[in-house]
Design goal:
- There is one protein chain.
- This protein is of the alpha/beta class.
- The chain contains five helices and five strands, in the order E-H-E-H-E-H-E-H-E-H.
- Helix 3 links the parallel strand 3 and strand 4.
């Protein structure tokens, strides 16, 4: 089995490297896992992304990458949509066309935060900013791609919030700001 993980330098990508390495070391038939970061594949470059998918031919794709600069997305909307919407759509299309499995990580920013109680997976998306809108567009594209398939490809979308791990994250930022400011 070939597994392709996008976002190797981010918190989720680093966690996948640790976990997949630990889990696959005991298997008799070891999967071939390739971790891809920004330097190996610019997700805003659709040609490079398509070429990578066609060359590696994964049976399992994990998209742990994203344009996550929430405030900056307001002025870099084209880049945010290219990475958060168009790239996942291309990954989903590859998975659907090649009977592969696709895991995509999204965000609670696809909602406006106005609901009382917990959000459910089928709640209506209503993002407020460009970041949330780009992630919602990615979810919608993935769902649309897999709604039209005739093969055995499958997908899952995981919505997360406040990811903590190796690298820059909210907790480290707040601790740093607490030391620097009153």
């Amino acid at each position: 089995m070939k597994i392709l993980v996008f976002g190797k330098d981010g918190q989720l990508g680093k966690a996948f490297q640790v976990e997949l390495s630990a889990r696959t070391s005991t298997l008799l038939a070891k999967p071939v896992v390739r971790y891809v970061g920004r330097s190996e594949c610019d997700l805003a470059d659709t040609g490079t992304l398509i070429q990578l998918l066609n060359q590696f031919q994964p049976q399992f794709i994990i998209n742990a990458s994203a344009y996550t600069a929430v405030d900056k997305a307001e002025t870099e909307s084209d880049l945010a949509f290219a990475i958060n919407s168009r790239a996942p759509e291309i990954m989903a299309q590859y998975a659907a066309d090649h009977d592969a499995t696709f895991f995509h990580y999204s965000t609670d920013y696809v909602f406006d935060g106005e609901k009382y109680g917990f959000y459910l997976e089928d709640d209506v998306r209503n993002p407020l900013g460009v970041y949330g809108k780009s992630k919602a567009a990615g979810e919608e594209a993935i769902t649309r791609v897999f709604a039209d398939i005739k093969g055995n490809g499958q997908y899952a979308i995981f919505r997360t919030s406040w990811v903590y791990g190796d690298g820059g994250n909210f907790i480290r930022t707040i601790l740093r700001l607490a030391k620097e400011r009153e």
